[in-house]
């Protein structure tokens, strides 16, 4: 850590989610022997493909870690070069400049984020920030200043889910879109909902959405422009995280592959906001995405 670096605290973790390991390593680098024992083998596998410290995010370091388990916290600290483990997350309040809430179980976000929101610290809350618009508004209402909360799926920053102007023109006017993700709707639908909505920002917003399905969950949507599409969460069925766009001239398949680049870009974005180098996130845009997450959980049409 260099003098002047932002000091970050990381909070986690939730079942099936290794973000405390990967996010911390993106700032701090990692210890290869300790990271080899990470319970998410995909993380040391993709970290090995990077060059450290060159690929670290400059100007910030994860200095404190808290999880529900001291043993887990100590392993994350060893794997990702974090100097301080705390037994109570509040112990880091006056020791860090911002925090990363790396759990993706939205039901716990308000409780865990609360002390940091009350202290006025900037906080990156992992996706989805909440499962209902009311839940998201409750979090925003606890902010001490506008822009204190940043939240997203890192896949919204994935280069695989971006199009150049030339590629958009090659597709021609869009006729239909579809997106698909593995695992459950509550935690994973946002992985494609947010990048899809970013891609379709010129379509005028969602005019209509209708949920359906059981273990495999669907949300059929119509944009103000008249474009229609479907988002699917596969549940336990294996599959990709992918978006397909059908245009009048061509179609395009986009599949998510590079977790490191997406995470690094999202975390860099947050650091730039904290430093004042980038405008704060618009809560209205976040609420639009949460509204779709909520719609997909429902048995009613919006």
How does this model look, in words?
With 302 residues, this protein is α/β, with parallel strands linked by helices. The chain folds into two domains: 6-155 and 260-282, Rossmann fold (3-Layer(aba) Sandwich); 159-257, Dihydrodipicolinate Reductase, domain 2 (2-Layer Sandwich). It has eleven helices and twelve strands. The protein has helices at 19-28, 32-35, 42-47, 70-79, 109-118, 133-141, 165-171, 185-188, 190-199, 259-275, 283-297; strands at 6-11, 60-66, 84-85, 98-101, 123-126, 149-152, 174-181, 206-213, 217-223, 228-233, 242-247, 251-255. The protein has a six-stranded parallel beta sheet with strand order 3-2-1-4-5-6, with helices on both faces. A six-stranded mixed beta sheet has the order 8-9-10-7-11-12, with helices on one face. Helix 6 (133-141) runs antiparallel to helix 11 and helix 9 (190-199) packs across helix 11. The longest helix is centred in the C-terminal third of the chain and has 17 residues, at 259-275. The chain starts with 5 loop residues before the first strand and ends in a 5-residue tail after the last helix.
